[in-house]
Amino acid sequence: MERNEYTMKTIMFSLSLLILALTLVSCTVPESNPAGAAYVDRSIPAVQKTNSIYLKEAEPVYTDSPSNASSYYLYAYNGATPDDRVQSVILFPPVVDSLALDSVKLVLHQSASNAENWAFSVTARLWNQEWQDAMDAGEVFQDELIPDHIRTWEITEDSTGAATYSIPLETERVENWQDTAGVVLMIDPAEVNVYVRFDSKQNTDDLAPRLDFYMDGDTVVTESVSPVSDTYYVRKPESLRDDLLFLDNGAHDRMRLEFDLSDIPEDVTINLAQLVLFADTLESIPDHSDYYNVNVYRLTEDYADTLAYNASYSTGTLDTGEEITVITVTTIVQGWTSSTYDNYGFLIKGFNEGLTMDRRGFYVDLEDSTRMPRLDLYVTPALASQD
Amino acid sequence: MTYRWITLFIGLGLHHLFAGSILSSQGIGLPYDNPNVRSMGMGFASIANPSPSRIDAVNPAGMTQISTTTLTIQSVFHTNKYKDTEYQSRSNYTNFDGFHFIVPFGKGLCAAFGLKPVTRIDYKIAFADQIESEEYTKSLKGSGGVNRFVINAAWAPVDRISIGVGVSYLMGRLIEESRNQFNADSDYTSSHDRISTHANGLNWTLGMQIRPYRSWTLGAIYSPSVHLDTQVDFYQIFSSSALDPGSLQYPSTYGIGISYTLLNTVIIAADFQKTQWEQLQINGADVLRTQNSHRISMGLEKIASADPYANYLKRIPLRVGALIQPCYILDPNGESLSEMWATFGFGFPVFHNTSHIDMMFGIGKRGSLEKNGLEEDLIRFGLSITGGEKWFRRKY
């Protein structure tokens, strides 16, 4: 009896060890190789490239009230025509009546310009309500609305060099600021195709614009005043190019592109979808050789009704000198082909919209297949059931 | 039964891992309807090979031999080293192989129920491929299979004749998956398609055993071809959808067996079992490259002493057997793949012969590299635990 019980315990212990050992042996990941593949009647779906999908429709998308107040920069720019301008406004708090000013200086930090080969003038003018009203009404800015020159100075520095300007203003004009007032920065109308970039109040204090007050004969700054707000405004000409649509970071101009995906079966998996865009190299500002990044969004409603788009985006880059950008849009296209989303097209806007004044044109000529936007798709056909 | 048995039963039931044969990519997978470990040790001979202490559901008529309430659970470890003319691979798995519970009511009447796998799909093949110089792995994988929940009733109306019937609910999930797997840092998104087919339907098995002489037992079984309803779901990484309902026609099986007890020391048993795999249809269409399979199995057992106080070694039965059958899947050229097994086994009685631990080892070979372009070297280890005790017993 005792011998049998002892034997039984030994057997059960041994069995437990055996089961554990077999389980551990079986826990190895199964080897995977083509051995025996000839016995599989099924076709194993492979990734394949489809024919390129070319543009079906393109249209510009404009924003009603663009705001560039969060930009780190202020710009002044003159294009080739009078209606191609970028100007900046810096607003300051009212000056206290009791101040006895000896002098006032506007301090600006210039971070870039294209003044390398010639000099041009920047004018600071007194901001007024008429100017503001015109902006609010979306009207084209007129120089005559802001006739008061405060000061003009010349930009002469190399475009790669930063510079800080301390510009004397007319003291009596500043002393009369009873409410929020400020200055408008613009380039002399006689100058064309030039721009200058200043740091805005979004930057650190030593780079941000300010007013330095000198009082009671002081030779050092008595008081510095920071802007209440600053921003830049863009006015641009109507495009004369039918084959281009522009993305404008300053004016918040965007574009909508739609592709016909009805020939793609619903049940394929999109392994990779690439949107290929061809950029203009001549009419872009301020410099087509500079880099430009674009964001691609999925429109969630018909643009004819409203502008609504999903917040997720893919980014494409145009590095210095590049004319083609390829943007991965796999998730969006997968949603369209599987009918998860309705295809209202892509919304494309500048990556730095509201932050820079850059403008870049993209070809949308439906007659020119070499530069027409296209979708390149790499897909896996659906696994077919065995019957 | 004590907690130790329960713990061991649970341990046997929980482990299940992947592996198998590329042949299971055809049809509804490879047959996996194993008899009990005792019969497996005797070359799978089970139609006319009843035991008073082990449950074998292949022929429900044999259950009338059991006089105690009994539970059996078994597990199988399987390793398959397979190769074609260019590549070779190995797979291992350990799988819960079902349970059976039987309650005898006396007067030759008993009832039982159990759960058993019927077919298994376990395969995976993978290839290196590339698109636009981007490398990826293309693979196809199958898993799942059909299982059977069975309720048996058996009756011995006279001493030497017993009949049994098993009503089975066949159910299972057959899964096929394809993947195109890119590296994590690739711009390409990996794809993953999965077709999951749920099948279910009723089947029945009729069995009988006759003992014309004390030493001889004859047996026969029959299961008809049955229609299973299927529901197919299609999954992708971005969506899922239900496809149209379908059907699956499962083949009929019949078999006969004979056993002879020699001088009350050795049992010799042999079976012939045929399954009409050419009846197999999926959604009304014949499955290509199938043939009817006929299994011929033979084995013998050295009968152990039934005396619980005898020397322990004398209480261990020894078994040996062999099996030959063609695989129901034909090779790509339409040629048959032969399958052969040599098995042996033994059993450990515990708790004064009221319970048993049985083991079997099998070495098999399927296919031929020269003839079929595929060869599989198979090893199988089976383990079962059977515990029994008397119920409905008067205590005074």
Helix and strand arrangement:
The complex is a heterodimer of chains A (387) and B (396).
Chain A: H1 2-26, E1 48-49, E2 53-61, E3 73-78, E4 85-92, E5 101-113, E6 120-126, H2 129-136, E7 149-155, E8 163-169, H3 171-175, E9 181-187, E10 194-199, E11 210-215, E12 223-225, E13 229-235, E14 244-248, E15 254-259, E16 269-278, E17 292-298, E18 314-318, E19 324-328, H4 330-337, E20 346-350, E21 359-363, E22 374-380
Antiparallel strand pairs in A: 1-22, 2-15, 2-22, 3-4, 3-10, 4-9, 4-13, 5-8, 5-10, 5-11, 6-7, 6-9, 11-12, 14-21, 15-20, 16-19, 16-22, 17-18, 17-20
Chain B: H1 3-14, E1 30-31, H2 37-41, E2 69-84, E3 88-106, E4 109-117, E5 119-131, E6 134-158, E7 161-182, E8 191-210, E9 216-223, E10 226-235, E11 240-242, E12 246-250, E13 253-262, E14 266-275, E15 281-282, E16 285-286, E17 293-302, E18 318-330, E19 336-350, E20 355-366, H3 369-372, E21 374-389
Antiparallel strand pairs in B: 1-5, 2-3, 2-21, 3-4, 4-6, 5-6, 6-7, 7-8, 8-9, 8-10, 9-13, 10-11, 10-12, 12-15, 13-14, 14-17, 15-16, 17-18, 18-19, 19-20, 20-21
Describe the structure.
- The complex is a heterodimer of chains A (387) and B (396).
- Helix content of chain A is 12%, strand content 37%.
- Chain A is mostly beta strands and 387 residues long.
- Chain A is elongated and about 105 Å long.
- In chain A, 37% of the residues are buried.
- With 396 residues, chain B is mainly beta.
- In chain B, strands 2-3-4-6-7-8-9-13-14-17-18-19-20-21 form a 14-stranded antiparallel beta barrel.
- In chain B, a hairpin with a 2-residue loop joins strand 5 and strand 6.
- Chain B is globular and about 75 Å long.
- The chains are: A mainly beta (387), B mainly beta (396).
- At the A-B interface, helix 1, strand 1, strand 16 and helix 4 of A face helix 1, strand 2, strand 3, strand 5 and strand 6 of B.
